[in-house]
Specification:
Elements: H1 2-16, E1 23-25, H2 26-29, E2 95-96, E3 112-116, E4 121-128, E5 133-140, E6 145-151, E7 157-161, E8 169-174, E9 179-189, E10 193-202, E11 222-223, E12 227-233, E13 239-246, E14 251-257, E15 266-272, E16 278-282, E17 288-293, E18 298-307, E19 327-336, E20 351-352, E21 355-360, H3 367-379, E22 380-383, E23 386-389, E24 392-395, H4 413-429, E25 436-440, H5 444-455, E26 461-466, E27 474-486, E28 489-495, E29 505-511, E30 515-525, E31 535-541, E32 545-550, E33 560-568, E34 573-578, E35 588-595, E36 597-603, E37 608-620, E38 622-627, E39 633-635, E40 670-677, E41 683-691, E42 699-710, H6 713-732, E43 736-739, H7 746-755, E44 759-763, E45 778-783, H8 786-794, E46 802-806, H9 815-825, E47 829-831, H10 839-853, E48 855-857, E49 860-862, H11 877-890, H12 903-921, E50 930-935, H13 943-948, E51 954-959, H14 964-980, E52 989-994, E53 999-1004, E54 1010-1014, H15 1015-1024, E55 1029-1030, H16 1036-1045, E56 1049-1053, E57 1061-1064, E58 1112-1115, H17 1116-1122, E59 1130-1134, H18 1143-1149, E60 1154-1158, H19 1166-1180, H20 1185-1196, ...
Parallel strand pairs: 2-4, 11-13, 20-23, 21-24, 21-25, 26-43, 26-44, 44-45, 46-47, 46-50, 50-51, 52-55, 52-56, 56-59, 59-60
Antiparallel strand pairs: 1-29, 3-10, 4-9, 5-8, 5-10, 6-7, 6-9, 12-19, 13-18, 14-17, 14-19, 15-16, 15-18, 22-23, 27-42, 28-35, 29-34, 30-33, 30-35, 31-32, 31-34, 36-41, 37-40, 37-42, 38-39, 38-41, 48-49, 53-54, 57-58, 60-61
Helix pairs in contact: 3-5, 3-6, 3-9, 4-14, 5-7, 6-9, 9-14, 10-12, 15-19, 19-20
């Protein structure tokens, strides 16, 4: 077979050598993204600087939103009126003032200005309610005469003060209408630039025409009847209470409007029953509508308050919080004949048992996992239609959970488990209860028997499985060679004007088996570009796909060299080195070819793992790679982190420094290198041994070993059988007991007798049990096939449309925590290795390719995006060969298919279809959406697999973790979430770190419909809904304090910085126009800080990874170091690359219940709009996380659950390069303060 393949290749290569094959247009290899049509709300922002229409914004890229220079003044008074710039020179561009707010010389809150003969007008305006009195004074600088005019909103003069010379000007007026009034200052005389001071004071109140202020307290609320009223709020009057009489059954209807009467201020309305109970609230950003049925007759109340306001906001001492909000509102009250109660968030119903079952971690066997399974029906079961739950926890797992730092300061799995224990105990202590601790015996058979007799006094039914803890896999060394590698390096240097590489040509190479790795360096790049790759490496034929690229720090951050590419020659054939910059924008293309050794091993059984290892006696730079039969590198993955970790707030490689260890993978000398593939396909695999560097010892002696560990079929059958037996036992609330293949252990027999068992359900996939049960015990069901097991579980009323999938490839025992999750949902436990076609292998291929073709960005590996196309691509390899030959003859690149052959569609569709068809073969494709949950390490079942199962027909999540103990902690937390969330003292609080967000931008869905998004406003509404308290932040210290105090939900919207960390507003920074300024914390970010734009200003916020508007960076090392117990916080991210890096694990390590976000680039406003709708689904309407997100997939990008062409090639899909993921149970319902705390029972 191998010789025959090589002969075929020889023929192909001879054909390819014909003609001028080495001159290939680079444009045919590297398709630049087409210009993107962008729709933006073009309404004029009357009081803001004009934003540029930049189209969709890609995270981790720099954009300048404004053309005008930043306002610069050294005056601490920040004229005019705190704006650092000239007030508007005409009515339509008047500058807002906030007379009811503090005077702190921020925009609208300063009281000084300048005027001159060349700048004769300063226009201002302010909000006031009808009947309020306002006094305005103006004091010009000596030698200047400035007149003062007050005008209405039709530019009609109301009053004026035109005193002579430098005499002060004063006007006093009672407002005849509610809304904006205008101030015009007119320069009359004076030399040069004149300063002035002014005051504006609203001296009275007239809420609802009362001539006074509506009360700030419930008891003395101002009485009203149906009608329309006006009122006013400010920093000294944060609440207005109104009372009204209504009969039971009637509908209470209020409309609150302030958007057009109180600029950049938001008020909310809250409804109270006659007894003072808070019953409902509306928290939209700007105008609100409230409709609620009166449940009793009497005097009800509403309260009008300010967001963020002055009272119900953080009051830190270590930093300042920017409070704002004031102005007039219009309140309309009506009584309807009836109204419906707005729906609440559904609360999952569980009854907690005050028990804690402990399993001693045994890393050397799966006895602990089989013991764990036996504990499931004792603490996670259904009886009488009620779900009872208690935790099973591991102890003694010191596996590190953090990824940076030293051994001494790393967290462990035990720490993650302890957070769970602390929360469980805290919940129980709320009820004055301490848990009963049950230590599960270390011997699994004994454990099952003892649990059965300790937790049941009698049971006529027992579920039985074969104890599989003693089965071992077969490990066979299929390759072992000792060789001496001679370092042979060949360098090709091609000048930019060389005919082999012109402006539209790439440098082509025909590489045989001698060459085992390539390096590419493009030198002398003279441009800065965040959208073009400085260097590219392409496998032109036979794979026809990019393999590696380099864009950071050059040309991303500036000119220089793009020399970070190093990639194994995974397939002999045609390769291309190129650059996306033009020939005039670089000097030299340098290709380094590394000779190495190739070995071939054959995998005949895909139910195995491959581990290749090279060892040397002296440290060397030798690397080993595993290449699959299709010619794709599968191991090792590129490391997710690269380079040292700087102190907190210090960037890794900011502004392209000369020494930049964060840009390239440069492994240290080592004596051992390992590559492992957990899901190999059948066929011939290639093992490549090659040096990493050009310079080093000339000869290196090494030993290469390849071990194949074949999964013991009996182990697989026993583990899957026992996992499903635990589910069945849970659904019956019956004990789970173990037998051996051919005998009943004495402890099991004793348990049968003690409990009075007279029937058993025997779960023995593969018919592995030959045991005979004693007389008096009938076999109610003997489940020997997977289909039998699935059918049996699905026959129960409590079985949900939920599918649990795990992997047995690590041999560590993830089937046990998977069974706990499956028991909760009444789900079968399936094994991904049983899926025909090996979808886990495809997920591995995709993720390894994404990391390989990605690039390091400030130290983190930002993954690449699978190549896509705008129409179906013929996948026939003969078609590709024909096109390639046509191209080589004609040099016409139009005959070639799109580079990459739309791997995004065809690879991912293959992965989805293999998984779906496998599920459907078990008759698990039921009515409605299936919920999938994968339980395995992230390097076992890679994230592309669960991501592709989310769409109109299904949704999915992934429980990660490198050990069963870790996965168990995540799963148990999610199951117990409806009760242990009450251990979080600040569970009613939600928070965010909104750094980047659109504001009035439009996006067109795949169905052709467009929608505007105001993301920060939507987040404010959703995160305040259902009696939640929303406290957003943008300073890191403020955010950290909020998180450690405890919140139920956290949303981050900002740059991912390649997945390396979280961004924040600088407290103070030299990298801005105002280096002396101490910046504020605020409910949302304000990237315009470099232009003196403060948080209240509407408009897009977009911080940059370099000045201006540079953001503060906090690497995840420091996030991990500083976070405490997150107490079941649900974490949501809108960034780039974070889902592919360490970020999700840091939050889960610290007790988060779920992490949601993307593992690709994202796009603003598309991703923001998607999250807006997602939060409306989860936070407003109570949909599960998976359901809410799945509804958005078809609209935004490819939905592989339907393969609908509208989504495959839609206008939105064509612009998106993300891969969304959910780490956690996708059926999670987010906590609402409406929930009631369940009381535990003693078990």
């Amino acid at each position: 077979m191998k010789n025959k393949r090589r002969k075929v290749w020889a023929v192909v290569f001879c054909i390819l050598l014909l003609g001028t094959m080495f001159f290939v247009p680079a444009s045919s290899m590297q398709g630049n993204s087409s210009s993107i049509v962008y729709q933006q709300n073009q309404s004029h922002k009357q009081y803001n600087d004009e934003e540029k229409d930049l189209g969709p914004l890609v995270p981790d890229r720099k954009y300048i939103l404004y053309d005008e220079p930043a306002p610069m003044t050294k005056s601490t008074d920040n004229p005019d009126a705190g704006t650092k710039k000239d007030a508007g020179n005409e009515f339509d561009y008047a500058t807002p003032l906030y007379p009811g707010e503090c005077i702190d010389n921020t925009p609208g809150r300063g009281r000084t200005g300048t005027i001159a003969s060349t700048d004769i007008f300063d226009w201002y305006f302010f909000s006031i309610s009808q009947g309020q009195d306002v006094t305005i004074t103006l004091v010009p600088q000596a030698g200047f005469n400035i007149d003062l005019f007050l005008l209405d909103n039709n530019q009609i003069e109301i009053l004026s003060s035109t005193n002579p010379a430098s005499d002060p000007e004063v006007v006093t007026h009672t407002a005849a209408y509610t809304g904006y009034h205008y101030i015009k200052l007119l320069y009359v005389s004076g030399t040069g630039i004149g300063d002035y001071n002014f005051t504006i004071t609203i001296t009275t109140q007239n809420d609802a025409g009362s001539g006074d202020d509506a009360s700030d307290v419930f008891a003395t609320a101002l009485s009203i009847t149906p009608g329309t009223y006006t009122g006013y709020l400010d920093m000294n009057d944060s609440y207005d209470f109104y009372k009204f009489f209504v009969n039971v059954g009637k509908g209470i209807n209020f409309s609150l409007e302030m958007k057009n009467t109180a600029l950049f201020s938001d008020f909310d309305i809250t409804l109270f029953s006659p007894s003072g109970t808070l019953v409902y609230e509306e928290d939209a950003y700007y105008d609100d509508e409230l409709l609620y049925p009166a449940s009793e007759t009497g005097e009800w109340r509403v309260r009008i308050d300010i967001f963020p306001g002055w009272v119900d906001v953080p009051h830190p001492t270590e930093w300042e919080y920017y409070s704002y909000g004031s102005g007039a509102y219009v309140l309309t009250f009506d009584i309807e004949e009836s109204a419906s109660i707005p729906p609440s968030i559904p609360q999952p119903q569980i009854t907690p048992i005050a028990n804690t079952l402990k399993v001693s971690n045994d890393p050397l066997s799966t006895k602990d996992e089989f013991g764990y399974l036996a504990a499931i029906p004792a603490c996670n079961y259904v009886e009488g239609g009620t779900r009872y739950v208690a935790p099973i926890i591991y102890e003694g797992d010191d596996t590190p959970t953090s990824y940076y730092g030293t051994e001494g300061d790393r967290g462990t799995v035990d720490d993650t488990t302890q957070y769970l224990i602390d929360d469980w105990n805290a919940y129980l202590s709320n009820h004055g209860v301490t848990p009963f601790i049950y230590d599960v015996p270390t011997d699994s058979v004994i454990a099952a028997a003892q649990i059965a007799q300790n937790y049941w006094t009698s049971s006529d039914l027992a579920v039985v499985a074969v104890d599989g803890s003693g089965y071992m896999d077969d490990v066979k060394t299929i390759l072992k060679r000792t060789k001496t590698l001679t370092r042979v390096v060949e360098v090709d240097e091609i000048q930019n004007d060389d005919p082999k590489i012109s402006s539209d040509l790439g440098y082509m190479m025909l590489l045989g088996p001698k060459w085992c790795a390539l390096g590419v360096n493009v030198t002398g790049i003279s441009i800065t570009s965040s959208s073009q790759a400085g260097a590219l490496l392409t496998q032109v034929y036979p794979k026809y796909i990019d393999m590696s690229s380099d864009d950071w720090p050059t040309p991303y951050d500036g000119p220089g060299n793009a020399g970070d590419i190093y990639h194994p020659v995974s397939r002999i054939g045609l390769w291309s080195a190129s650059t996306a910059v033009s020939n005039t924008q670089f000097d030299l293309l340098r290709v380094t070819k590394y000779a190495g050794d190739r070995f071939h091993v054959r995998v005949r059984n895909a139910d195995s793992t491959l581990t290749a290892k090279i060892t040397t006696t002296e440290p060397s730079d030798l690397l080993v790679f595993l290449v699959d039969p299709r010619g794709y590198v599968r191991a090792p993955d590129m490391p997710i982190w690269n380079g040292p970790v700087n102190p907190i707030h210090v960037w890794n490689g900011l502004e392209n420094p000369t020494v930049n260890p964060w840009r390239c993978w440069n492994p240290e000398p080592h004596t051992e290198c390992i590559a492992e593939v957990l899901h190999p396909e059948e066929g011939w695999w290639t093992v490549i041994v090659v040096p990493r560097y050009e310079v080093g010892p000339e000869k290196i002696r090494y030993t290469v070993t390849v071990d194949q560990r074949t999964v013991n079929a009996k182990r697989a059958d026993a583990e899957i059988s026992a996992a499903n037996a635990a589910v069945i036992a849970s659904l019956n609330h019956a004990p789970l007991l173990y037998v051996s293949e051919d005998a009943i252990p004495s402890v099991t027999a004793t348990a049968f007798t003690a409990l009075g068992v007279n029937k058993v359900i025997f779960v023995e996939r593969g018919d592995i049990g030959t045991v005979s049960f004693p007389s008096g015990i009938t076999v109610q069901a003997d489940l020997t096939e997977m289909q039998d097991i699935v059918d049996h579980i699905k026959a129960y009323d409590d079985s949900e449309n939920f599918i649990t999938i795990t992997s047995l490839k690590t041999g560590k025992g993830f089937f046990a925590p998977a069974a706990y999750l499956a028991a909760y949902h009444g789900s079968p436990v399936l094994r991904i290795e049983d899926a025909p076609g090996n979808p886990a292998a495809m997920a591995d291929r995709i993720e390894t390719w994404r990391l390989g073709d990605g690039d390091y960005y400030h130290g983190a590996r930002a993954p690449a995006h699978l190549p896509d196309a705008r129409e179906p691509v013929d996948q026939n390899p003969i078609r590709l060969l024909t096109a390639m030959l046509q191209f080589l003859r004609s040099k016409n690149s139009s005959v070639l298919p799109p580079l990459g052959m739309d791997a995004d569609r065809y690879w991912r569709a293959e992965m989805h279809n293999e998984t779906y068809e496998w599920i459907a073969s078990y008759n698990l494709d039921l009515e409605g959406q299936e919920a999938y949950c994968f339980v395995a390490p992230r390097t076992d079942i890679y994230l592309p697999l669960h991501s592709v199962m989310i769409g109109n027909n299904s949704y999915a999540g992934h429980i990660p973790g490198d050990t069963p103990a870790y996965s168990s902690a995540i799963i148990v937390r999610s199951v117990l979430y409806p009760v242990i969330i009450f251990a979080n003292p600040n569970r009613n609080t939600t928070t965010s770190q909104l750094m980047n967000f659109p504001d009035g931008d439009s996006w067109t869905y795949n169905n052709g419909q467009s929608e505007l998004t105001y993301s920060s406003r939507t987040v404010k509404q959703c995160f305040s809904s259902h009696f939640r308290t929303f406290e957003g932040h943008c300073l890191w210290d403020a955010h950290l304090q909020e998180m450690n105090n405890g919140v139920s939900v956290f949303y981050y919207s900002g740059h991912g910085t390649g997945g390396s960390g979280i961004s924040a507003q600088y407290y103070q920074t030299e990298h801005c126009n105002y280096p002396e300024q101490i910046w504020w914390d605020a409910w949302r970010g304000y990237s315009g800080y470099d232009r003196w734009r403060i948080v209240r200003n509407n408009g897009k916020s977009w911080y940059n990874p370099e000045p201006p508007s540079l953001y503060d960076i906090i690497q995840y090392d420091h996030v991990d170091r500083l976070l405490g117990n997150l107490k079941s916080c649900a974490v949501f991210y809108q960034s780039c690359s974070t889902g592919d890096g360490y970020g999700p694990m840091v939050y889960l390590d610290h007790g988060a219940v779920l992490w949601y976000g993307n593992a690709g680039s994202g796009l603003c406003p598309e991703a923001d709009l998607m999250d807006d709708k997602f939060f409306e689904g989860t936070m407003l309407h109570g949909e599960t996380v998976g359901q809410a997100y799945s509804k958005e997939v078809w609209l935004h990008y490819r939905d592989f659950t339907t393969l609908d062409p509208v989504a495959m090639y839609g206008s939105s899909t064509n612009r998106i390069t993300t891969m969304q993921c959910i780490y956690g149970d996708p059926t999670l319902v987010i906590f609402s303060p409406e929930w009631t705390e369940p009381a535990p029972i003693m078990g």
